[in-house]
Amino acid sequence: MNTKEVAKHLGIHEKHVYALIKAKRIPCTRVTGKWVFPRRIIDEWIENNARSGMAEARKKSKRIEGALLAAGSNDPILDILKTYIRRTYPEFYIFSANTGSTDGLKALNQGYTDIAWSHLLDPKSGQYNIPFLSTFLPNLKTVVVNLFNRDLGFLVAPGNPLKIRGFKDLTKPKVRFINRQKGSGTRVLLDHHLKQLKISASSIKGYENEVYTHFEIGLSILAKEADVGLATGSVSKLLGLSFIPLTQESFDMLLDQSTFFERGVQAFIEILNSRDFRNRVENLGSYDFKDSGKILYSKTV
Length: 301
Fold this sequence. Notes:
Elements: H1 3-10, H2 14-22, E1 29-31, E2 34-36, H3 39-61, E3 67-72, H4 76-88, E4 93-98, H5 101-109, E5 115-118, H6 133-136, E6 142-156, E7 177-180, H7 185-196, E8 210-211, H8 214-222, E9 228-232, H9 233-239, E10 242-256, H10 257-260, H11 263-272, H12 275-282, E11 287-288, E12 295-298
Parallel strand pairs: 3-4, 3-5, 7-8, 7-9
Antiparallel strand pairs: 1-2, 5-10, 6-9, 6-10, 6-11, 6-12
Helix pairs in contact: 1-2, 4-11
């Protein structure tokens, strides 16, 4: 790439590229008097800088006593949980990023986060999260703790005007779909069903339109930017949308054994199981707390 192309690739002004060259902060070489930037090396440089930045953020978070970093899937009641823990235990902080289940597990394995939220389904076994431990968390003595089971399904406009019933209805000509990002548990579930039913992604209008949270799915439908999307039943109640349930899934917390015994994590589990919190979210429905706080898996070796 030349300077103009690399500026576009990085999303910066061409003048900034020259400033990076002058400061010797970007990999490049000069050929026949012009600066050139091999795309593969630039992409590696971007990835290395991202890792360095995450590691630095991880280091800084440890300066706040009681701080924990979390990454992975998204659920509306996680925000309520974090509010309760700040109110009950003001000495503890949980900073959470909506990266999707897969990237949350990868970040945990690389040491960029303390906790991963995940709901990845393994179609062969019917299990959530545990079958993926050897793939995504080979470096950890992992503990898998159930937070709750939740209803997942299609969110549609009130009254379901387009009569959405199942995945095949996503291919109707007038139906506009809003999708979750690659690597999210919801996207993995969607793609599994499409493959089973031999439905091509290209036959679904809006398949390429991605958002990062369940609320964004609901808001897209409220704004009439889309007609249907996959999200939790609780979002339908909060936003006044209709809900077509498809499955109940296990939403789990994954972490290393050493982190599991930290006081902040134990306080989090205590809040999750408290009567006050349960009463607060009871009206939302769509949640089952029968296994909440239960250790589903703990690596022994």
